[in-house]
């Protein structure tokens, strides 16, 4: 876990962090219960297959939750207040598929105590989603 505070000045453009993961059936069920979204595209493999997908499609909002983990725990970490997100999904991630979520520091602004992260979600070399997140830093640095 990322428990040590980091001052905004300690971050540099190009700095990056990533997490690898695969969404499980249990995570999908927990997310459905939490969100109330029981769309069969996410919960019924036969329904998803009839719509042209090779399996159940992971919730986009669940992928955003993984991004929350990356921002809050890795880059920039505990002093981050996530203030904006612009993301485009190019292709779905299916339940059980391995993916890598990466954030790269694109801009650091001491004047506003904020940074912009370029984010991407990839499966192998295929980009499934990309965008940017804006983060305010609530530290003493």
TL;DR of this structure?
By secondary structure, the protein is α+β, with helices and mostly antiparallel strands.
Question: Can you put this structure into words, describing what you see?
Answer:
With about 140 residues, the protein is α+β, with helices and mostly antiparallel strands. The chain has a domain at about 10-25 and about 60-135: Hotdog Thioesterase (Thiol Ester Dehydrase, Chain A, Roll), CATH 3.10.129. The chain has four helices and five strands, in the order βααααββββ. It has helices spanning about 25-35, 40-45, 45-50, 60-75; strands at about 15-20, 80-90, 100-110, 115-125, 125-135. The chain has a five-stranded antiparallel sheet with strand order 1-3-4-5-2, with helices on one face. A hairpin with a 4-residue loop joins β3 (about 100-110) and β4 (about 115-125). The longest helix has 14 residues, at about 60-75. The protein starts with 15 loop residues before the first strand and ends with a strand. The mean pLDDT is about 95.
Range of strand content: 35-45%
Number of helices: 4
CATH topology category name of the domain at 8-23 and 59-137: Thiol Ester Dehydrase, Chain A
Which CATH architecture of the domain at 8-23 and 59-137 would you pick?
Answer: Roll
CATH superfamily of the domain at 8-23 and 59-137: Hotdog Thioesterase
Low-confidence stretches: none
What structural class do helix, strand and pairing data support?
Answer: alpha+beta
The separation of the N and C termini measures 21 Å
Helix content: 10-25%
Mean pLDDT equals: 94
Radius of gyration using CA atoms only:
17 Å
- Specify the CATH class of the domain at 8-23 and 59-137: Alpha Beta
Largest sheet: 5 strands, antiparallel
Secondary-structure element sequence? Answer: EHHHHEEEE
**Largest sheet strand order:** 1-3-4-5-2
Give the total of beta strands: 5
Tell me, briefly, the overall form. Answer: elongated
């Amino acid at each position: 876990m990322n428990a040590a505070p980091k001052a905004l000045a300690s971050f540099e453009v190009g700095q990056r962090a990533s997490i690898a993961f695969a969404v499980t059936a249990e995570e999908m069920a927990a997310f459905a219960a939490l969100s109330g979204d029981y769309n069969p595209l996410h919960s019924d493999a036969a329904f998803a297959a009839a719509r042209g997908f090779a399996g159940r499609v992971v919730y986009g909002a669940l992928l955003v939750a993984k991004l929350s983990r990356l921002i809050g725990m890795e880059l920039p970490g505990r002093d981050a207040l996530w203030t904006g997100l612009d993301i485009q999904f190019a292709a779905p991630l299916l339940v059980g598929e391995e993916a890598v979520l990466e954030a790269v520091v694109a801009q650091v602004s001491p004047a506003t105590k904020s940074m912009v992260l370029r984010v991407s979600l990839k499966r192998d070399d295929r980009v499934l989603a990309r965008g940017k997140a804006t983060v305010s830093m609530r530290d003493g640095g």
